[in-house]
Amino acid sequence: MNTSTPPAPALHRRLGLIGLTLYGVGVTVGAGIYVLVGKVAGHAGEVALLAFLIAALVAVMSALSFAELSSRFPRSAGEAVYVREAFGKPALSFLVGLAVAASGLISAGALLVGSAGYIASFVALAPWSLIIILLVLLTTLAI
């Protein structure tokens, strides 16, 4: 009688660093454009192109800053680690970590509201109910 257990199946890597980075950038930029183009064009009118060029310039500077941070501190929550290493203040590092978490929540909320607005034009549900449905679905997917 064989009492040994079979080896557990292992996950195989399908996305490398480049593919994962391109995926993340594509999702972020694509979602932002999908949700915000109409709103920006409605407010900016004829100078919408200039608004997008300015936003692109800010995004490039932000991306280069994060590239520098991640190369110096290749760990999760690099911003908080950078502040802790630079200033030696754990409380300040904690506040930076909270600010990063808050910015992620605000971004996710903006995308949920924008997406619910688009979906509401196809489905006869109140936008607030679509926001809750999307939040539950996307949270389930993430988990």
Concise account of the structure shown:
The chain has 143 residues and is an all-alpha fold.
The gyration radius over C-alpha positions equals 21 Å
Integer tally of domains: 2
Number of strands: 0
- Give the overall shape: extended
Outline the structure in words.
- With 143 residues, the chain is mainly alpha-helical.
- The chain folds into 2 domains: 28-72; 79-143, no CATH class.
- Helix content is 77%, strand content 0%.
- It has helices at residues 17-44, 48-72, 78-87, 90-120, 127-142.
- It is extended.
- The chain starts with 16 loop residues before the first helix and ends with a helix.
- The model has no long low-confidence stretch (mean pLDDT 80).
Mind sketching the topology for me?
Layout: H1 17-44, H2 48-72, H3 78-87, H4 90-120, H5 127-142
Helix pairs in contact: 1-4, 3-4, 4-5
Quickly list its features.
mainly alpha, 0% strand, 77% helix, 143 residues, 2 domains
